[in-house]
Write a structure and sequence with these properties.
Elements lengths: L3 H5 L6 H7 L5 H7 L5 H17 L7 H8 L4 H14 L8 H10 L6 H10 L11 H10 L7 H21 L3 H12 L5 H10 L1
Length: about 200
């Protein structure tokens, strides 16, 4: 049985292997620790569950808990919820993501820029498995008003958006996606280095 001591003794470099070896019955304890006030315990539990989700589909059984976290008043809990949902979409054979994708995409306009970034970045784990949601995801990304974002975060969030659009574009491009990318590459938010970075993805 996993204890706080044994969890915290796992070295960061050993998390992948440790996540493979934990007993299935310990998963509910790790999920419980996601609500722990101690940030170190909470974060280590998140990393264990994320790594476990890479190899096994058993974390998927806590899907409803992650959905509830995504609607939490606490921004850290919202981030935990959205990341674990995205991590488990690959196991989502029943397309339960369809029922919560609107709630997920609402976080593109979260009050916390870091949560917005995590929401966009986690789409890397959704887009490859759910092509039927590409259009909805692209439209919501394009609708994000970058100028409403804190100035220091604008470039980072725009880059995150463009990375996801570049992936979607390879499967299905639209005039809206092309126009958005063109405006970003000719606009003033991105510097030359960032523009080259995006161009290399297209």
């Amino acid at each position: 049985m996993i204890t706080v001591e044994s969890l915290m003794s796992i070295n960061k470099n050993d998390l992948k292997e440790a996540s493979k070896g934990i007993d299935k019955s310990d998963l509910s304890q790790l999920v419980q620790w996601l609500s722990e006030k101690d940030d170190k315990i909470r974060y280590q539990s998140l990393l264990m569950l994320q790594n476990r989700s890479l190899y096994f589909g058993d974390v998927y059984s806590f899907w409803d808990i992650f959905c509830n976290k995504m609607k939490s008043e606490n921004s850290y809990q919202r981030s935990i919820g959205l990341m674990l949902i995205a991590d488990n979409v690959k196991w989502d054979k029943d397309n339960r993501i369809d029922d919560v994708i609107d709630d997920y995409l609402l976080l593109l306009n979260d009050e916390k820029p870091i949560t917005v970034r995590q929401c966009i970045q986690a789409l890397h784990n959704i887009v490859p498995y759910k092509s039927h949601l590409h259009s909805k995801i692209a439209n919501n990304l394009i609708s994000v008003n970058i100028m409403d974002v804190k100035e220091t975060m604008r470039k980072l969030i725009l880059l995150d958006i463009l990375e996801i659009l570049a992936i979607i574009r390879k499967q299905q491009s639209t005039d809206e996606i092309e126009n958005y990318i063109f405006k970003a590459l000719t606009g003033e938010i991105l510097d030359k280095k960032s523009k080259k970075q995006i161009e290399s993805m297209l």
